[in-house]
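debug: dumping io for the single-chain case to check the tokenizer round-trip. Nothing else runs in this session.
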Amino acid sequence: MIPDRRLLRNLDHSLVFAVLALCLIGFTIVFSATRGGIGPGSPQDPFYFVKRQVTAFVLGALACVAILTMDYRLVARAPRALYIGNLALLALVLVAGHRISGAQSWFRLGSMALQPSELAKVVLILTLAHHLAEAGDIATHRGLALAFAHAAVPAGLVLLQNDLGTALVFCGITLAMVYVAGARGRDLLAVVGAGVLASPVVFFVLLKDYQRARLLAFLNPYADPTGTGYNVIQSTIAIGSGRFFGKGLFHGTQAQLNFLPAHHTDFIFSVIGEEIGFIGAVVVLALYGFILWRCVHAAACAKDAFGRLVATGVGAMLLFHLFVNVGMTMSLMPVTGIPLPFLSYGGSSLMANLIAIGFVLDIYMRRQKILF
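debug: decoded output
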């Protein structure tokens, strides 16, 4: 089904082109990082990872088109079913999930893997937007507590999967959305302060040994240069060696020779810095900046509170990922395993981000009545 042509006139084509540009850059960099293999036992087909990423893109794009055929407000008719279904999937992966890199966050579907926590971020945005749009007391302590409780349950289930990075994304999304919904600034500062005071408990009680080691490596990666600090050290070497114009596509030594771990996933920005240099990194960051601006613009133009909050949540999610991932690769943030939207290899992440963009496009497209 194709959206009404009169509605398509309102489609934000510039946002579509920016997302497509990032995805094309992502395909190219993933191919560059994986064409020679990513280590012992990696597939022999140089196009293996790119083909899987393109498949995820096609599925995500089809979901995006499907969203554009319906009014985004239809989602608000079944918030409870969405919320409960989301919690059920996050709980099920704790029991029947597959563990990768220390986190039990994946379902194995033959040769494919699905990460429910990626889709859970989009569901949180939708259900929390409905909750905040319907609540009339967000400026009170009770209203704020209920909003954070709404997000705390799925975030807690993700934390139980040993996925600290995604749990933190939930926090960033929630803070941005409750602020736009009308929460008082001093109350949010109090919440952040409480989180800082509780951080020692999280660090020493809730986190695993390898997670604590990652956070400590951020303070001084050279204290363990061949262990916990290795990734960050190799990442900064890669980015620094790219200089202004880069070493050239497919010619980065840190990635091509597999000195840099996870260079097709968490550290893909390091490959960009090494192979296409400062100029390429600036272009990528400019595309992200443009996408974030269009999310803010869609929120400002939305015809209802629900649409405004959904667009805000999507923008907050992308910004948090961008800030933490890029900071991580440059040793400005701890390594938390957060992918770079539209660029990092990972089908679940790419599909979730395209679905999120689909809602932003739909909100902007339906910002006004159809004009005859």
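debug: round-trip ok. The chain has a mean pLDDT of 88.
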